Amino acid sequence: MDLFGKKASRTDVAQTVSLWVGLVANLSYGAVLLAVALSLDCAWIKARRDSFTARKAPTTELHALPIVPDVDYAAALDLGEGRKLYHTDRDLFYAAGDHFYPIVVRGFPKLLGLSPDGRNAAFLEPFEFELSADLYVFDVPALTLRRLTEHRDAASTVSVKTARWLDDRTLYYLEGYRYGTVSRGGDLWRVDIRSISREPVVRAPKTESGFEEIVEFEFVPDRKMIRYVVARYDESGAEIRQARYCGLDGKPVP
């Protein structure tokens, strides 16, 4: 047999074939190693991204006050088992028996309510004219506080207007322009309180005749659909409202 211009024995041919088979096998093995390395690298990148996201919303642990604060005992949300949330226009305290934990002191909190399982309390702060309010969650059993949105920057022009619980870990909220006496709503968003992942659900449309904003929303009884109210303002400033429906993912429902 002539191999590369030379007479080759069967032994030479077998060795050459074996060499090529080994080379192909090594290439295949290298491709597998490369694929594994890339998959591990992608997993590492995702883990780093997730850890970065978690760091953006640090958990704050609350500590009991050494003295009993001056609170309005009439303005309290009873959590059972001797636990209460005391709330006013300026303060928000958690009390377990004789121990008081300051959540907001001399601020402008607005308590929105408890999650269905009663473990988390949602509130806005600072809920005041032309200030950028953020959405917070107070974990009652853990005595920790987490901020779910990021609007406290002085340059921010948006604010959270209100929020509602869908289930034990999901909040839907309205976020819109913070300035002026007319703007009361905005776009509909949702946030997972565990992963702090936020995403828009319904963007208020912009029309040729003026802007629109979502000013109200509620879940229908089976909680598989959302009814929201869109307000449009004409040139004279008159408000025109229209009710619309969408799924939990924001897709319109006729």
Strand order of the largest sheet: 3-11-10-9-8
The CATH topology of the largest domain turns out to be Lipocalin
Oligomer: single chain
Q: Note the gap between the termini.
A: 79 Å
Please indicate the count of domains. Answer: 2
**Coarse structural class:** alpha+beta
Principal-axes shape call: globular
Number-wise, the strands total: 19
Major beta sheet, specifics? 5 strands, antiparallel
Task: Tell me the radius of gyration.
Answer: 29 Å
Our count of helices gives 1
Q: So, CATH architecture of the largest domain?
A: Beta Barrel
What number is the mean pLDDT? Answer: 79
CATH superfamily of the largest domain: Uncharacterised protein PF15525, DUF4652
The CATH class assignment of the largest domain is: Mainly Beta
In words, what does this structure look like?
The protein has one helix and 19 strands. It has one helix at residues 10-56, and strands at 2-3, 6-7, 59-61, 76-80, 83-87, 92-96, 99-104, 110-114, 120-125, 134-139, 144-147, 158-165, 170-177, 187-192, 198-202, 206-207, 210-219, 225-233, 239-247. The chain is globular. The N and C termini lie far apart (79 Å). 23% of the residues are buried.
Provide the fold topology.
Elements: E1 2-3, E2 6-7, H1 10-56, E3 59-61, E4 76-80, E5 83-87, E6 92-96, E7 99-104, E8 110-114, E9 120-125, E10 134-139, E11 144-147, E12 158-165, E13 170-177, E14 187-192, E15 198-202, E16 206-207, E17 210-219, E18 225-233, E19 239-247
Antiparallel strand pairs: 1-2, 3-11, 4-5, 5-6, 6-7, 8-9, 9-10, 10-11, 12-13, 13-14, 14-15, 16-17, 17-18, 18-19
